[in-house]
Amino acid sequence: MKKTKLKELYKLKTYSNYILLAAALIVFTVLELSGGLRRSHAHLMAVIGFSVILAVSLNLVVGFLGELSLGHAGFMCVGAYIGGLLAKQLTASMGNQTLALIISMIAGGLAAALFGFIVGLPALRLKGDYLAIVTLAFGEIVRNLFKNLPWFGGAMGLSTESYGTKLFIIAFIVAIIMIALMQNLIHSKHGRAITAIRDNEIAARAMGINVTFYKLFVFVFAAFFAGIAGVIYSAYATPVLYSYFSFNYSIEILVMVVLGGMGSITGSILAAALISVLNFVLQSNLSGDLAALKYLVYALILMFVVIFGNAPALKPIRDKLNLHNLKVKIFALFRKKQDPDVVLSDSAGWDAIPTKIPMDSVLSTDVVPSESSTLSPDPRKEDSTDGK
Question: Which of 4, 104, 171, 371 would give a disulfide with 87, using CB separation of 3.0 to 4.6 Å?
């Protein structure tokens, strides 16, 4: 049957995240090239792009590994300052903005990964609130460190190269690559080891899983992509100010993860887009003292998510709005239903199975009991009669 309908359309559920981001990328790229996309909306798409990278990478630490980190904005800060400075110098020497941005993204990601290794090696011995406090302290130290370094502009910020309205294209491509790497990691034996550590660390150690290695690997992996998101931000906003990478921004990234669901990549993508649009709307309509209402909205969202996700009375509603079930129903529409009256030919019939004896002759053989077996008495009865 054409190899089972091309293996269920190449298992569309697995590629739903790619389809979601690729569709948005294609639609807004066409609008940008045709001149139908506003400059503000193009910048909003760039914000959504690096917010998706931040949310999904943090979800790997919080949702899949089960460790609470509040220093993700610190890793983004490292990438923004180091990658932004390198991109500025490379653009001046090479003259190619795109190539300079790609090189600076790799350099900024590696710098953030190095910081993640240095911080994670001692910090991951801690758990729960203690780890959260250490990562929070790291974020505050890093941003104040760059604030006081004259090479990075000091308190006035680092002036960087602006990449215009087409920056969101690069951001979305990086997001798709990161999600591809993450999904392959999660569905591999290493991903099963990571989730085993989250479910029961003691049992994972007993099964021979190197808990320290996997914790450090996840921490460095997430820091690498947070650094890349920081480089994209440095190409979006100039100057890069240390105040942007505050504790509040780390909480904002955590809100995206919690709102989308722990361990849900699709949920993190949608939540990052929702929070970014919400920020855009609030900043456009609220100014001055009213700007503080943005954080009140975040607090209300967190309260709603926690109550909605844990209240037993709301379980029927949660089941109906379950994102996984919704995806299954959507992809079921693309499957061709089989007519029960049509009998498919069995390609693995008896004639296709090599045997020493033809199966047709075996199935057509009638077993008839012999006369001797039916007339002969039970030998145990004969022995008992002779004994009497």
Answer: 104
- Which of 81-95, 113-127, 149-163, 310-324 is predicted least confidently? 310-324
Return the residue matching tokens 């709603």.
304
What's the pLDDT band for 3 if we cut at 50, 70, 90? very low
Considering the domain boundaries, does residue 357 fall inside one? Answer: no
Number of domains in the chain: 2
> Within 10 A of 53 (CB to CB), how many other CB atoms are there?
28
Tell me if 325 is assigned to some domain. Answer: yes
Rounded-to-5 percentages of helix, strand, coil across the chain? 75, 0, 20
Tell me: the pLDDT tens digits for 164-223? 778 899 999 999 999 999 988 988 899 899 999 988 888 988 888 898 899 999 999 999
Task: Tell me the residue range of the domain where 297 lies.
Answer: 286-336
Q: Cis link prior to 239 (omega < 30° from 0)?
A: yes
pTM for the complete prediction? 0.76
- Answer yes or no: do 316 and 241 share one domain: no
pLDDT at 100 over 70: yes
Q: Which amino acid is at 4?
A: T
Q: What number of residues does the chain have? A: 388
Chain segment 30-46, per-residue pLDDT in tens: 888 888 888 888 889 99
Which residue type does 247 have?
A: F
Domain of 61, CATH number, reads 1.10.3470
First to last CA, the chain: 72
Burial category of 311 from C-beta neighbours within 10 Å (exposed 0-12, middle 13-18, buried 19 and up): exposed
pLDDT for position 1: 44
Reported for 342-348, long-range contacts at CB under 8 A and 24+ positions apart, including other chains, are 344/1
